[in-house]
Amino acid sequence: MYRVLEKRVLNPAIKMFIISAPLIAKKAEPGQFVIVRNGETGERIPLTIADFDREKGTITIVFQEVGKTTKELGLLVAGDSMMDVVGPLGMAAELPESGCVACVCGGVGVAPMYPKAKAMHAKGVKVVSVIGARSRDLIIMEDEMKAVSSEIHICTDDGSRGFHGFVSDKLKGLIEEGAKFDEVVAIGPLPMMRATVEVTRPLGLKTWVSLNPIMVDGTGMCGACRVTVGGETRFCCVDGPMFDGHEVDFKEAMRRSQMYCDEEKRAMEHHTHHAQGCRCHGGDR
After folding, report:
1. pTM metric for this prediction
2. pLDDT tens across 132-145, in order?
């Protein structure tokens, strides 16, 4: 069992857990992830390691409550335990040793970006962070990113804070204003990463993206997390999750991400039904 040492509510839909996991913390590197399971019948879900402390033996995970499993996970409090936390899984991110890197992240994508930005900053890389959310109240981990960035730019879709528009548009504006980047790292929803890649593609500017598709075992056996990169089938769990964004088939990735929407909707309806107290049989359950 893996104990939750601390829980933070970053916004109404996004939670952060600091978990006791000494063996994982000992080997974790930026870019890697864990698969968690809340109980014997629980779904296995992949979550990027948002931070780790080797001395304290802890890892940090951040997740957005979007379905039945993540909503149930969000009910845990400090002192509770999860049945399984498996990792570290995946390949560590290839991070530059020098130069200037734009870290472009949207929504909950700020969480997996943070350990990469932190590692690059520690090496002396100039980190320019572009953080986006739908509105100002949904921005997360701003202080953490500010601490590891030379510059930080806030974007909101509704214009309630910072730049009024998408992070990809802000990146394009910075480049047009003369900013020189050696690499770009983009993490967030698939449409956001695709838009960022289309900004950098004409410039031949190396761009990494982090893919988080449907995943089951996390060891390359099930094939559920397959994506097409450079015309070849790759498995995110063992070949990724970081890939050259210019080579990712985003159209296929977005189509596959919608494969189980109906099942997820039914599971969520069932969860909500019982959470509100089922009265189908005349009892207060």
Report:
1. 0.85
2. 999 999 999 999 99
- Listed residue (111, 127, 4, 2) closest to 50, CA to CA: 111
Q: What is the CATH number of the domain that holds 64?
A: 2.40.30.10
What's the pLDDT tens digit per position in 222-251?
888 889 999 999 998 899 899 999 999 999
DSSP codes, the chain: -EEEEEEEEEETTEEEEEEE-HHHHHH--TT-EEEEESSTTPPPEEEEEEEEETTTTEEEEEEE--SHHHHHHTT--TT-EESEEEEEESPPP---SSSEEEEEEEGGGHHHHHHHHHHHHHHT-EEEEEEEESSGGG---HHHHHHT-SEEEEEETTSSSSEES-HHHHHHHHHHTT---SEEEEESSHHHHHHHHHHHGGGT--EEEE-----SSSSSSS-TTEEEETTEEEEHHHH-SEEEGGGB-HHHHHHHHTTTHHHHHHHHHHHHHHHT---TTSS--
The position carrying tokens 């940090």 is: 60
Per the domain annotation, does 216 fall within a domain? yes
Q: Are residues 63 and 40 in the same domain?
A: yes
